[in-house]
Write a structure and sequence with these properties.
The protein is α+β, with helices and mostly antiparallel strands and 366 residues long. The protein has helices at residues 66-83, 116-121, 149-152, 202-213, 247-255, 265-280, 289-299, 305-325, 332-338, 353-356, and strands spanning 27-36, 52-54, 60-64, 89-90, 96-97, 123-125, 132-134, 138-140, 143-148, 153-159, 179-185, 190-197, 229-239. It folds into 2 domains: 3-145 and 192-325, no CATH class; 331-366, no CATH class.
Length: 366
């Protein structure tokens, strides 16, 4: 049994695709409880305010747009692909070249989209004359807090010190006015969040979970602040069509409880699982989530690099076949077969008319 087949002990093989060009019904919905473990900055136009949304019942919730979560996980996924040498375009011998030129959101042509991370999360090449785009197979929900913004945030005032470590301008001797405020989401705040995937291969599914479960740094100032969020995978629902459960509906229902539970990890996780059971029914939820997570963590413990490399090389091979099948990149093998080399004309047997016309009259197959 190959390593990836272990995944089928948790999720039936029929819920995945073997050919990434397949387009069939069937959704896998991942339910996460994202827990802040350090102050988190979620801001947009106003550098001093957290992004919020006022609900119809008057609550003001912290709101995290999908991109602020997806971008960090997509970036980690890119780093993983770089680790296994899967970035860059393929040369005539099938080897990756110019992989160092592939950076996050920077692709110098369609051929550089030929990697598992771009096929999973979606990417775009905007190079003049070589534009191309891949849609995401991982659809991210918006994330909302369970509690009101006033209960889970705090605003702090900062200053920009001089080299002497004071607020005094060393040239003028006057006090500097370089003060600014930042609003933080406090630790022990919980965001229920969902990611939905369809038409995904087992290898890309493993890549998604690896990118989410191992990313722990989100929001602004991540080059200054330490890890600030842990992602708990709590349920996986499978159905022909996606069910209408979102972070917002869970937050609304949490607030609507007759007796609102204490906000802690156990209560929030139990509540999300009950909501998933309500929408997907218990028989359509994946069993042994903790064992699935343990298996993924074991793969990354440093002792299974060969197995991971095999999985990622299969993902890269599938991605290459997919991009060639949709004509986003050229298939050099088919091109070579369509244009066989000619021998010495003096010694060649006369050709049939249909064979003589291969260069001039027969269009390329790429």
């Amino acid at each position: 049994m190959s390593t990836i087949e272990k995944l089928f002990e948790f999720i039936n093989k029929s819920n995945f695709v073997e050919n990434l060009r397949e387009n069939k019904i069937g959704q896998i919905k991942l339910a996460f409880v994202r827990e802040t473990t350090n102050p988190l900055i979620i801001r947009s136009n106003d550098p001093e305010a957290t992004i919020t949304m006022v609900t119809i019942d008057g609550r003001e919730l912290v709101e995290i747009p999908p991109r602020k979560l997806k971008s960090k996980e997509k970036l980690l996924g890119l780093m993983i692909c770089r680790q296994f040498g899967l970035l860059g375009k393929l040369d005539g011998d099938g080897k990756r070249i110019n992989g160092e030129s592939v950076r996050y959101n920077s692709f110098e042509g369609a051929e550089y989209l030929n990697n598992p991370n771009s096929v999973l999360f979606g990417d775009t090449s905007t190079k003049a004359g070589d534009t191309a785009g891949l849609v995401s197979r991982a659809i991210y929900d918006w994330a909302y807090s369970l509690r009101d913004v006033k209960d889970i945030t705090e605003k702090l005032q900062h200053n920009a010190l001089s080299e002497s470590g004071t607020m005094i301008n060393e040239k003028t001797g006057e006090m500097r006015q370089s003060l600014f405020s930042t609003e933080y989401v406090l630790p022990n705040t919980f965001f229920v969040h969902f990611i939905t995937v369809d038409n995904i291969s087992p290898e890309l599914f493993l890549h998604l979970l690896s990118s989410v479960l191992n990313q722990q740094r989100y929001g602004a100032q991540t080059t200054t602040n330490a890890n600030n969020m842990v992602n708990h995978l709590v349920a996986i629902g499978i159905a022909p069509f996606e069910k209408p459960i979102t972070s917002y509906t869970v937050s609304k229902k949490w607030y609507g409880q007759k007796i609102v539970s204490e906000v802690n990890q156990k209560n929030v996780v139990d509540f999300v699982i009950r909501e998933m059971e309500l929408h997907y029914k218990k028989e359509n939820l994946v069993n042994d989530i903790e064992k699935l997570i343990a298996w993924i963590n074991e793969l990354w413990d440093g002792k299974h690099e060969g197995e991971l490399k095999e999985i990622y090389e299969k993902a890269a091979k599938d991605s290459d076949a997919y991009l060639k099948s949709i004509k986003m990149i050229k298939d050099e093998n088919k091109k070579a077969q369509a244009k066989p080399k000619r021998g010495n004309k003096a010694t060649e047997e006369p050709q049939q008319q249909t064979e003589e016309a291969d260069d001039e009259d027969v269009p390329d197959l790429d």
